Amino acid sequence: MAGEQQLKFPQVAEPFAGGNGRNERIWNFFGKTGGIQAEKVLANRQSDRYNCTNYHAGLERKGEQRMLFEKITLIDGNYEEKRDMYLETEGNRIVYIGTERPEGYTGETYDGRNKAALPGFYNIHCHIPDTLLRGYGEGLPLHRWLTEKMFPFEAKLTEEDVYWSSMLGACELIRSGAASFNDMFYKLEWIERAVRDSGLKANLSFGVSALPGLGSYREYAAYAETEALRRRLAEAGDDRVRVDVGLHAEYTSHEGLMRDVADYAREAGLRVHLHLSETRKEHEECKTRHNGLTPAALFERVGLFDVPAIAAHCVWIEGEDFDILRDKGVTVAHNPSSNMKLGSGFAPVKKMLEAGIRVGIGTDGAASNNNLNMLEEVTLASMIGKGITGDPTFLGPRQLLELSCRNGALAQGRTDCGALEVGSRADIVVYDLDKPHLQPVYEALPNLFYAAGASDICLNMIDGEVVYRDGVLTRIDEEKVKAEARSRSARILSEL
Fold first, then answer.
1. Which residue ranges form the domains of the chain, and what is each CATH number?
2. Are 440 and 451 contacting, i.e. CB atoms less than 8 angstroms apart?
């Protein structure tokens, strides 16, 4: 590939050449520092299969559900607060919103007095299997944290581990008001199983990194897993789970692989999910490697932005980067907690929005946040935005709702989600306003974003199905999930 910069790796043993998903993550860093270290990590891997008892049941929707929310406060599709409203769902859709009880309704009625309904959140950047790493490797900068802690731990993750860690993350996402999330990891089948068992929606991607000994993207485990998921989803016949194409980052790839990923995404009609300019180091070193090109400019040149894309972080974008992201229709995933915790900086969200760039909100993984609480993340995005700009009007409640719901849904290609409107998917989160810290209620939305916590959520409906109600997850055995998480984290630590 003339004119392209190639990553150089040491010679490696044959077992790693074909690679699985875990290998791709490990070799990205350990392959640079020595084959012995990588070989040691990979030699201990386990390859087992988990017979998920809930999986096949989770593939089938429970019968058509109907619910009427009565006398509830809601924020409609125009971000206007409406009180004492009736909202009816049937199947996975909102079929009625009005001031009068729908004539002839005979289904379940939900008492909405002293309660408020918002659309479910869309967490557009996450690594849900990393929930098992919550609090591990505390206090290190990003690149040391990845190489010294994250990747060695991830190398020990079995398929069962990925499933149970994803289920642990699902508990938190649902409890904090999420309807859907974008994930970048590997072992996509096992994340998909967790998504279906939990009742969430998701766009899943395998964030490919360059490996020694491999040529085109089609030689990678990332391609095989992405194609396998495409086939399963086509057979499933629903859109609860979608597949995207993942590229980890500029600093873990090279131009040839980037172009292959871009070509595949365009040919397959898939969306792209990648990391972009998360740290100053990443951003500046890219310019050194690629004759002054920023990561955004490089990704544009190789065609990665010729399809709908989510670019996570974008903390250090500069100059023409803003024009590129706007003109190419890229959605930025803003991750304020992770960026602060890892010392990466503050994304220029105000400048992005003023430039016309679509912005959504993500939690990143629990390993770097350290939680998946979407309500908290949305509130933090507003507080940081106001603080660093000196503008108390920036990222007000209605703008927050647009970023965290509508923009997130559009970033996933879900045009009928993200708002409480007739015809939209019934992704509805109900908050209990009858709490001392939420009274008095002059306006519901400011109270919910600046005073409420996840514990104030009393119902989460996703695609018309109630998956959480009054403290109980309807699809998940929470105690079993916690027990599995504790057992598996202890095993992995003993193996490191």
1. 50-496 (3.20.20.140)
2. no
